[in-house]
User: Fold this.
Amino acid sequence: MKNKIHIISLGCPKNLIDSEVMAAALIESGCEFVYLPEDADTIIINTCAFILPAKEESIDEILRMAELKRTGLCRYLIVAGCLPQRYGDMLEKEIPEVDLFLGTGMIPRIVDLVASLQGGELSKQRSFTGKPDFLMNSSHSRLLLTPPHTAYLKIAEGCSNHCSYCVIPAIRGKFRSRPVDDILRETETLAQGGVKEIIVTAQETTLYGKDLGYTSGLSSLLREIALIDGIRWIRLLYTYPANLDDELFRTIRDVEKICNYIDIPVQHIDDSILSLMNRKGDCELIKNVISSARRIIPGVALRTSLIVGFPGETQERFERLLAFVRETRFDHVGVFEYSREEGTGADALPGHIRESAKKLRRKIIMEEQTLISREINQALIGSTMEIVIEDKSDLQEYDYIGRARRQAPDIDGITYVKADEKATGDIVECRIVSADDYDLFAEERVEKKA
Assistant:
């Protein structure tokens, strides 16, 4: 009888790819993948441990699945990824319901470890971490857990920036790029499987290839990906402002398949805070990069991430960040409250901010961004855009939900579409007819016959 596997993937798209690799490896070994945890013999939770809310979500999910193990069909509960990489030994003592804790480097061993667990061979050891040195390649199959027309493409692993608030280098290891040929082989496989949208991801995509000696690594890679038949959209995430340049902007402008969309996590704009964060680049650099992007790429949509409540963020420094949000008018913004993480440089800094103040500051910026987003969306009414169809709509007036090139999955808004019968993954030319704070509303453009 086949071992029925269910995987719960928490955290970022990079983690999702790891989950897809584990799922495919287990299926190839003879396991059966099931889409409901209630139907599984073995449940794997691939966790995130980036900040406190992510750790809390991971722990909550572990405890929820532990209860399912106690009352349901589940026989084995496995916790993988960032949380055990960071806290494996501690978790082993604190959560006896979990049968295996696997760190980020254990993905290549997932099949053997699951088999050993089923064979009763792991009674003396429950935590396996080791060095976080795994780097996937095109030989690793993936069971896509995204809609079939969209896939994330991890071009590198790890990070070497050592921002003072961040634990990623300890959890994921130093930055290391995949060779171009290997990435292209994987992309061709994805395209042959029906993927139309490639979302390029890494801890920092703009550093791609520097460790391999490539001089124009990311720009060259994007141009190569665009040559692959079947790929219609290419989207770029996690670009570090200090490594963005005009060459990349021109590539985005000139290559039609690349969406005019850039994710630029700036984190803050005050020079003192940026220095305390150990971020490369200052306020002037960030503003110049944004100005260049908008000058070179017509109609570019810009997303950023910000951290409020960092140690030393006085009211004056916060007001500087708020003014920057008002002036820059990003299309999409994510705001995080600073999370104090043991073992990071920021943990030892003076001037930590009260939690209530962090929450208030986040609320203020998000309220400001909501107004900006609504105004930007309203200005799009009457324009024509390509929309990829994602699912049926629950709104009576609109048949489908989809996304425009300016909308990344899960983090930005969506577009409601009124159209004749479409299939998931169809890319439809539409006219924007309405907008709210974050979402757009569109009608399919139908050419009138003469």
Q: What stands out?
A: The chain has three domains: 4-128, 150-379, 384-444. The chain has a mean pLDDT of 94. Residues 355-379 form the longest helix (25 residues).
